# Entry
Amino acid sequence: MNEKIPNKNEIVKIKVKVTNIGINGDGIANEMGERYFIPYSAPGDYVSISIGNARKGGRIAKINNIINRSEIRTDPACLHFGTCGGCTLQHLQTKEIANLKRGFVASALEKQGLSPSTLLPTVEIPPGLRRRVRFAVNKSKRVTFGFFEPHSNQIVDINRCPAIQPAIADLIYPLRNLIIATQAITRVATVQVTLSDTGLDILIRPGKVTDLKLEDRETFANFANQYDLARISWHGSLGAEPIAQRREPRHQFGPAAVTLPPTAFLQPSKKGENVIATAACVALQRATRIADLYAGCGALTFPFSRIAPTHAFEGDDEMVSAIKRAARKHPVTAHLRDLARRPLTAPELNDFDAVVFDPPRSGAKSQAAALAGSSVPVVIAVSCNPGTLARDLSLLIDGGYTLQSVLPIDQFPWSSHVEAVAILGR
# Structure
């Protein structure tokens, strides 16, 4: 029993029992009327912790030592685990992570008054397949290149990462050296690396918008040649500008090869993308006219087009253009539309017998409300945020839809994120 109730203005060490994992991947313990969020802990752990800053719903804490180790723990695969915030769940057994993520979706459904009875087992995507990574950079004192610590803006300097594709991991040291050599980066930046079907595609965003001088441009071009990049781009005052493109970065989406703009959205792994597309296509087999909302660059649009003519709606003009260029031999049309500000109306939606929407983490509240007032027979919702997904599903169900299934997909291995595909019908 802890004898002292911690004062919120001082650091106190106490011992607690971890009971569960929260949606952000932290272990949760409750002691003396306070809730503690403890990174890298596991349900069943009995730990000594140091109490840190307040956070919504409780206080952040740090493990001093594990007194009794949970039975569901395993040895982490990465030497940076415990400091890097990129993977919060590496210390848990694989099956426990799958169950945990299914539980996240179930909890979100229940909070909206929805039954989790339609929830399927989690589809597990193995680690090491991530094809899209965003590294953080700071060179104000010494160059740090890696990922943020949990609940912090401090960057953990990494040299390997078992969560990502080896081709990306092998570029960590060269990219760090490139950052050192880039005069236009004076302090902070992000480096986005995507493994396309035709090679590595890199986009560098400086913290302070600035344009490259000739010397930096030559450095980038030499780097692209030395490491056989498909493309390297710089995000300056005019947006994302390709500095060196040795070949088009292409991705195969179903029957179509799409050349992506530097800022395009892409699912984190090809396998995860295929699981989403397959689950949706099964539910669309009887469709004759499909709408793909928040279509991105057509990752789902083109697989759907094998079933029926598909109409993509997307708010980013570069991604719409990418779909149009790839759609010449396919029954696909692409429309520029900001669905958050101007969702398709019920009369517009009624032109389709199936609608799929895959919005950003904030969800599609306005679009779901419009769908609820439509007569579309089949609706499929794809989301990486269980909370906003459940909210949108609730709107659809209130409008007369029946939730047929929800498929959790762990395409973010070792992190607390989870994808889900929900099928609804009238």
User: Anything to note?
Assistant: Residues 24 and 58 are 13 Å apart (CA to CA).
